[in-house]
Design brief:
This protein is α+β, with helices and mostly antiparallel strands. It is 44% helix and 26% strand.
Length: 249
């Protein structure tokens, strides 16, 4: 089994095995095209794989066809992996994939506002103030673990977004989840507001993660409109002459 692990330690050899898994029974020339490698170099890698019994070759006329041999890999699986609970490993794998996906946020927007960090914090969390520039009241006690609601200003009391306050570090950082009110326990996205003070200005960074492809498009239109209106309120005391999000409706 040492030969198997030595053979698998090289990324080129792993790529050759992946290529055979995708299309078994290839010629040396076909494999060389896939890895952009000279025949001599590819042959050396294939010799190591064959010595480890990870591939086998069959002659068909003048052609030598190379096949993946899964037996050694199955033996590794049986010896080291099957002993564990496979459902648990599947869950851990899903978590890892989600974490890797989340390393790159779906949407990030940065704006600079001539205001203090406390004023920006209040603009994000005060129900009356958000009602002025956002068209919704952001309602919560803004304590970690508390719920929050994005309530329409039309007097209906209906919320278009609900979620949970994850982090509330006044006046530096606010993190909330965003979910559909009809399925509050269903899939949700996550919004982070980072407030960094400067010399008479604030750098506000909004990061929105966990968005579907359709929601990414909506975020790309919605966040600049909302934050432009917020900026106008804090710097001039008035909202923009037109609700900016209506320009794209």
């Amino acid at each position: 089994m040492d030969a198997v692990f030595r053979a698998l330690a090289d990324p080129t050899r792993r790529f050759l095995l992946d290529s055979l898994w995708a299309a078994n029974g290839q010629t040396l020339g076909e494999l060389c095209e896939r890895v952009a490698m000279a025949r001599q170099s590819a042959s050396q890698h294939l010799d190591i794989l064959e010595s480890a019994n990870l591939i086998s070759t069959i002659r068909r006329g003048r052609q030598k066809l190379i096949y993946l041999n899964p037996v050694p890999l199955h033996e590794i699986h049986q010896r080291w992996i099957a002993r564990f609970e496979e459902p648990r490993l599947a869950v851990l794998g899903a978590i890892k994939r989600r974490a890797e996906m989340d390393e790159r946020p779906d949407y990030v927007y940065v704006t600079y506002i001539a205001a203090g960090p406390e004023a920006v914090w209040d603009a994000l969390t005060d129900a009356d103030l958000t009602g002025r520039y956002w068209g919704h009241h952001n309602v919560s006690d803004w304590q970690p673990g508390s719920g929050w609601r994005h309530v329409r200003t039309d007097g209906s009391g209906e919320a278009d977004v609900v979620g949970t306050v994850v982090v509330a570090d006044r006046p530096k950082r606010l993190v909330t989840t965003w979910a559909d009110p009809s399925a509050p326990d269903g899939p949700s996205s996550r919004v982070t507001f980072d407030i960094e003070p400067g010399d008479g200005i604030v750098r506000l960074t909004v990061t929105h993660e966990g968005l579907s492809p359709d929601d990414r498009d909506a975020a790309a239109l919605g966040w600049p409109a909302v934050l432009s209106n917020l900026k106008s309120v804090l710097e001039t005391g008035a909202v923009l002459p037109q609700q900016p999000w209506t320009m794209h409706s």
